[in-house]
Amino acid sequence: MRHPNLVILLLSALCFAACSGNVDKNKNQVSLSFWGITVQGESQDEVIRNLIEQTDEFDYYDDDRTEIWRLMFCGVPCGLNLDSLQTNGVTNITNITLITSHQSKADFEAIKSGISKRLGNPDIEDYEGGTDEIEGRFYGRCAWYRDERNATLRSINGDKGGLVVFFEYNNDHIR
Questions:
Q1: What's the mean pLDDT in 15-32?
Q2: Beta-carbon count within 10 A of 10 CB
Q3: What beta strand segments (E) does 88-139 contain?
Q4: What is the CA angle 165-171-175, rounded to 5?
Q5: Which residue has the higher pLDDT, 48 or 4?
Q6: Confidence (pLDDT) at 31
Q7: Distance CA 147, CA 102 (A)
Q8: Distance (Å, whole) CA 37 – CA 35
Q9: How far apart are CA 89 and CA 139, in angstroms?
Q10: 49 φ, ψ to 5°?
Q11: 135: Cα within 13 Å, side-chain hemisphere
């Protein structure tokens, strides 16, 4: 063999190319989860049904089983907004937003407690006007910052009021 270094270089290049190809394939097969439940499926309805049927915090609103736009979260009725991404025919839920017109201290505490059971104590707790209701409404904000997913619970300041919960992935590789 005249050029043993050339042969070693070519073999190294082939190995590198083969390994990098496998990394790209695995990147597209990322399994996203929310509280241990896979948030990937054929449709948004399938993913939400999995969350409802496999967690204690989520529940059906009335008998809605398809086209789920409302649900119960920690015992509080909420409207549901989802951000999703289609990758290779698979729906990936990237953000979940829940909104309710309820704004009592009991509702705020129920949602906070449900999230805290899964994520631990909030990283930020801020209560406007203290920890009591003001004219039947509770004003506060809690935020949980975790490696995979952030969560924010806050009151809506406005004429009608309410509460909103945001769950959002921190992973840039899903986009």
A1: 44
A2: 11
A3: 90-100, 124-127
A4: 100
A5: 48
A6: 53
A7: 30
A8: 6
A9: 42
A10: -60, -40
A11: 3
Compute φ and ψ for 68, nearest 5 degrees. -80, 110
Report strand pairing: 40-41 vs 163-169.
unpaired
**Joined tokens for residue 59:** 């529940």
Distance, in Å, from the CA atom of 119 to the CA atom of 150, rounded to the nearest integer, reads: 9
Q: How far apart are CA 151 and CA 96, in angstroms?
A: 9
Counting every residue written for the chain, the total comes to 175
CA 107 to chain centre: 20
Q: 116-129 in b/e burial notation, b at 16+ Cβ within 10 A? A: bebbeebeeeeeee
- Take residue 173 and report the two structure tokens written for it: 């590789």
The helix/strand/coil state of 130 is coil
Does 63 have pLDDT greater than 90?
A: no
**Token pair of 66, please?**
């398809």
